[in-house]
């Protein structure tokens, strides 16, 4: 009981030191929302406890709050994801793409699998030089029934993803299909790994750049949005 009281009475600097190893946390600007999508994108099935995950039900309320809050003028998305639930990831991407506030995304470590449409869903996208993005056909875990209807469902799901990527980036359908079906790039699998500028060269991502570039672009878009 006394120990809990002592913990509750810790001053903010000691609490910060205990939690993050630093007594001071810089104040975030009130007009920009920072959204992080890291690890595994968790949808209707709970990820294993040892996995870092971004929960679908945590992201949706944030996006609604950003759209409805008049004080928030823009959003930056920090991506370092291995992919995850296709339905959940695509739903999040569609929500982001439909928002009225300026949004900039930046791919840091990786933007793999369903992380690709999450990266392209913003108004403008960046990738750091060492980040990677994996483009591959959709995969299903668990029991797969070997009937024609199952394969039709797979094809429709993949078409939804391809259509979204084409709609929200400058990559062509032919290029994205070629990347997805590449057989010599990944051992024991189908698909392509893009590193930094390669994603920009094919039109998937807008620009190679880091956090400073992303923040400058977001401020530029927010300024233009105010002038409209």
Overall, the morphology is globular
Say what the CATH topology is. Answer: 2-enoyl-CoA Hydratase, Chain A, domain 1
Main pleated-sheet profile? 6 strands, parallel
Structural class: alpha/beta
Short key terms for the protein model shown above:
single chain; 228 residues; alpha/beta; 6-stranded parallel beta sheet
What does this structure look like?
The chain is α/β, with parallel strands linked by helices and about 230 residues long. The radius of gyration is 20 Å and the shape is globular. It has helices spanning about 1-10, 10-20, 55-70, 85-95, 115-120, 150-170, 175-180, 195-200, 210-225, and strands at about 30-40, 55, 75-85, 105-110, 125, 130-135, 190-195, 205-210. Strands 2-1-3-4-5-8 form a 6-stranded parallel beta sheet, with helices on both faces. Helix 3 packs parallel to helix 4 (about 85-95). The protein has a single domain, classed as 2-enoyl-CoA Hydratase, Chain A, domain 1.
List the helices and strands and how they pair.
Layout: H1 2-8, H2 12-20, E1 32-42, E2 53-55, H3 56-68, E3 74-84, H4 86-97, E4 103-111, H5 115-120, E5 124-127, E6 132-135, H6 148-168, H7 173-180, E7 192-195, H8 197-201, E8 207-208, H9 211-227
Parallel strand pairs: 1-2, 1-3, 3-4, 4-5, 5-8
Antiparallel strand pairs: 6-7
Helix pairs in contact: 3-4
